[in-house]
Amino acid sequence: MSDGLRIRLDRTLCDGFGICAKHAPGYFSLDDWGYASLIGDGTVPEKDRDAVMRALLDCPVHAIIYMGEHRPSDDTAVHQEAHEVPEPEPKTDDNEAISGFVR
Asked: Is the pTM for the entire model greater than 0.85?
């Protein structure tokens, strides 16, 4: 079960359209020049999900980044470690390059 979603605002991408503050004023504020700031830590409860997702989807410069679902921590949960899979070695015959070009 999800405890809401997490977002991040990349202020370097913001062009000051203000659509985010229109859709989700509780999560985005505009500075004196019209550029957005994120209110809070980016955690959005389920009840506000629709408004924040509308702001995310309507942002013309994609400055709002979806970070995934926030899941409550549970000490009994099984955590899997990420294992890195090595890249396969390319196979070449004599002087034949990977692309098939032969000298």
From this structure: no
